[in-house]
Amino acid sequence: MIGLMVPSVYADVTFMNFRDVQQNPDSFIGDSVNLTGKITNNNFQDGGVVIEVGGLGIGSADISDRIKYQILFEKSQNTNTGILVKDNCVKVTGEITGSITVTGFGAGEFTFPTAEIFTVDLIDCIYGFYPVLGDLDYAWFDENGVSLTEQNGVAKVTLKKMEFTTGHTRIFLDIENTGSSGKIEFNEQNSVIIQNDQQQLTSIHTSMVRGYPEKIDSAIHPGAITSGWIMFEIPIVSPFMADRTFEIRLNITDAGIDNDIIFLIHGNSFKLIGVYAESKGFVSVPEVPAEPEVVVSEVQQAQAAAEAAERVLQEKIETEQFTANMKQKSILSFVDPEKDPSHYVKRYITEETYKDWFTEHFPDYTLYEGIGITQEEYRNIVIELTTPESVAIPIEETYTPEPEPEPESEPRKSGGGCLIATAAFGSEMAPQVQFLRELRDNTVLSTQSGTTFMTGFNQFYYSFSPYVADYERENPVFKEAVKVTLTPLLTSLTLLNYVDVDTEEEMLGYGIGIILLNIGMYFVAPAILVISIKNKLKK
Fold first, then answer.
1. Predicted local distance difference test score (pLDDT) of residue 530
2. Closest by CA position to 100, among listed 118, 74, 120
3. Are 509 and 501 in contact (CB under 8 A)?
C-alpha cells in the first residue's frame, strides 16, 4: 500500500534509523536510502528484491525479529540484476516509495518499507551483516608517529583494521614469522582487548559470527604471513572517546614460550559515525559546527600558527609520555627484592596452581611485568630452566613467602589447547595432555597436509569443546567417562611414536590409518558386539 507523503526528520535512511522506518514507512517516502544487508528473496511478487538489513536482529533466534528488519526494493531499468542473487550481500542506495503488507514468512503479517533501487554493489557479508559504527583514523597515527606494526622475537604483527559494529569489535591482522626455523602459533583464545585498564573483551569464535569472516591461521611457518579477522565482544563506545584507551593483547607462542604483542590504541584515534544504546537505539555522533570565518591580521595569523605548532608538539610529547607510562608497570607487592627472579619464573612454569593464582589475581600483568624483568630476561630464564643441564634453585626458608594460591570458587575455562583432555586429566601438565600437544606440534604440524587437517579440525573442535570441558568440571562422573573414552584414542596415537613421518605421503597414510582404526574401535566394534548379543538373545 502506498501512503501519503509526510516529511521525515531524517536526511538518509540507514541501519541506524531503520527501526523508525519499519514502524511507519509511509512517513519516509522520498527519503534517500543507504543500506547494507543480505538478499533473502530475489524474485518477490513482481520481481522485487527483499533484503535483510544488516546491523539489526543479528543472531536472534526469533524469526519475527529477523523478518521485521527487511525492505522490498523495486528494480529499475538501470539495476545491475547480475548480482541480485539470493544470499548475496549488497550495499544499496535508493529512495523510499511506500510500504507493502505481506503474510507468511513463517511469522504472521508484516509491513515492509518499499524502495526504488538507484545503485547496488556486491560486498563482503561481514560488512553486510555488521555495518561499521567506528574505525581507526589512520591519519592520526601518521600525525603522531604511532606505529601499527609491533615485533616480538620472530613474530611481526601489523594491525590493518579495528572496527566497532553492532555485533562485535573486530580487528584484521597480518602475522609474519620472520624466523628461518621453527613455527610460531597464534593463540586466539588467549588474546584479549582491555578497555580503560579494566574492561576485558574476550574473543568470539568465528562460528558464532554471520558472514563467514576470513579466519587467521593458528600456525605460521618460517617466512610465512597469515592474514584474517579476530572477533571480540562489544566494547563501551561513546562520542567521548578521547579519555578511553584500548590495549590489544595478542598471544603468540614462540619456541614454546607464550608472549603478548601489545598495541595501545588511544580513544581519540577513532572515527565514529554513531553509537548504540539499548534505551535509544542508534545515535549519530554530532558533527562539530564550523567556526565562523574571522578576518585576522598577518601578525595574528603568525601567532596562531606558532601556538598551533606548540600544541601539536605538546600533544606529541604527551602521547609519547602516555605510551611510555602504559608500558611501565610497578612491581607487584608480593615480590621479594632479595629473591632471584628465577624463583618466581620456576614456580610459574612448573606449578599449575601458582600460575592459575597469578592469572586470576593479576589479569592485567604478565609474570615478567609483575616481578620487574624484561620479556627477554624472562625468555632466557625459561630456556635455562627447561634445559637438561639446569639445576634446581634452592628455596630459602627465611624469607617471607608470596601469597599462596587460593582455592578457586569457580572452575576456570581453558584458553586453547586440548580442552577436553585437559579437563579430563585435571591439568595441562598431565602426561596425556602433554603427549597430545607434542604429537600435534612435532608430528602433525610438521607437514602441510597435517597443518591443513589441524586448521579444519580446530574449527570443528573448538565449536563444542569448551562446553564439554565445562561440563566435565561440573560433573565428576562425566569426567571419568570421558577419561575412559579417550583411552583407546590415546593408545592408538602412540603408534605414531614408532614410525617416521617425514613426508606428506607418510602423514596422509598414517593419519588415515589412525582415523580408520579409531572408527573401528569406537563404532564398528561396538556395533558388532551389539549385533552378536542380540543374536544370542534371540537363540
1. 84
2. 74
3. no
Grid cell for residue 152: 616480538
For residue 472, give the nearest of 417, 422, 418 by alpha carbon.
Answer: 422
Which stretch of DSSP H or E encloses residue 128? helix 125-129
Which sequence spans correspond to the domains of the chain? 12-128, 132-284, 329-409, 413-539
pLDDT tens readout for residues 280-306: 455 555 444 444 455 555 666 666 666
Q: List the single range of 123-132, 206-215, 321-330, 342-351 with lowest mean pLDDT.
A: 321-330
Identify whether the C-beta of residue 177 lies closer than 8 Å to the C-beta of residue 224: yes
Per DSSP bridges, beta strands 48-53 and 70-74 are: antiparallel
Check for a shared fold between 12-128 and 132-284: no
For 385, which DSSP code? Answer: H
Handedness of CA 250, 254, 256, 261 (dihedral sign): negative
- pLDDT (tens digit per residue) in 425-479: 876 667 787 788 778 877 887 788 888 888 788 778 777 877 887 788 788 889 8
- Strands 70-74, 109-122: parallel, antiparallel or unpaired by DSSP? parallel
Cβ atoms of residues 5 and 99 within 8 Å: no
SS3 content of the chain, % helix, strand, coil (to 5): 40, 25, 35
Question: Hey, which residues does 193 pair with through a beta bridge?
Answer: 201, 248
- CB 38, CB 15: distance < 8 Å: no
The cell numbers describing 47, all together, are 520481481
The angle formed by the CA atoms of residues 376, 381 and 386, to the nearest 5 degrees, is: 125
The 10 Å Cβ neighbour count of residue 262 is 16
CB atoms inside a 10 Å sphere around CB 361: 14
**Consecutive H or E run containing 501:** none
Give the 3-state secondary structure of 267-319. HHHEEECEEEECCCEEEECCCCCCCCCCCCCHHHHHHHHHHHHHHHHHHHHHH
Q: Grade residue 224 by pLDDT with cuts at 50, 70 and 90.
A: very high
- Supply the DSSP symbol for 172: E
Out of 212-216, 235-239, 289-293, 390-394, the most confident range is 212-216
CA distance 464 to 341: 39
Burial 219-236 (b: 16+ CB within 10 A, else e): bbbeeeebebbbbbeebe
> 472 with 465: CB under 8 angstroms?
no
Across all residues in the chain, what is the average pLDDT? 76
CATH superfamily of 12-128: Nucleic acid-binding proteins (2.40.50.140)
Rg over alpha carbons for the chain, rounded to the nearest Å, is 29
CATH top class, domain 132-284: mainly beta
Residue 65 has pLDDT above 70, yes or no: no
List pLDDT tens digits, range 409-435: 333 333 345 778 878 887 666 778 778
